[in-house]
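User: Sequence recovery, please. Input:
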């Protein structure tokens, strides 16, 4: 009888010690290509480099990419701090948030960011994929997301992919 009681008690402790099942963060680590972008407050980039996400301690993520300023390419990095909300990260000392949303298309995500930069509020969405080629089904899902968020669908841009072997022209996403 004591053995049965001990086994039951240990079983309950084990069940209580396990984390409850929850929504898993989308796997953002690795290289992602920006397939489409839209911004509420500024003209989206027409040339973009891939974004490389690397794991840091505590669930934080380092985003590395190249930006173009005054015709020159510059390496840039942003630390994304994990929050208690799955798929949500804090950046720029809490002045901006990045939300990672899944899409119905494999290897495609939407990065939606909002916050404040130089005293101005901003909202921006990017469709990213593991492949630089545009997937039309993913683009349709992105357009629905953009509409749902109230961003200007007419301003969606398909940017030029920069980097080795990338020579595609930027175009509107009609």
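Assistant: Recovered sequence (174 residues):
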């Amino acid at each position: 009888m004591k053995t049965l009681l001990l086994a039951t008690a240990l079983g309950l402790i084990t069940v209580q010690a396990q984390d409850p099942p929850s929504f898993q963060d989308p796997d953002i680590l690795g290289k992602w290509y920006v397939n489409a972008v839209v911004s509420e407050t500024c003209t989206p980039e027409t040339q973009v480099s891939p974004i490389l996400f690397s794991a840091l301690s505590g669930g934080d993520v380092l985003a590395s990419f190249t930006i173009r300023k005054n015709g020159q390419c510059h390496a840039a990095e942003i630390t994304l701090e994990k929050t208690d909300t799955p798929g949500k990260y804090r950046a720029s000392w809490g002045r901006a948030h990045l939300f990672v949303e899944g899409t119905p298309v494999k290897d495609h995500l939407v990065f939606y960011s909002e916050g404040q930069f130089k005293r101005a509020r901003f909202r921006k969405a990017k469709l990213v994929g593991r492949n630089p080629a545009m997937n039309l089904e993913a683009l349709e899902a992105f357009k629905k997301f953009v509409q749902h968020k109230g961003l200007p669908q007419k301003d969606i841009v398909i940017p030029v992919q920069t980097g080795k072997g990338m020579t595609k022209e930027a175009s509107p996403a009609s």
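The longest helix spans residues 2-17.
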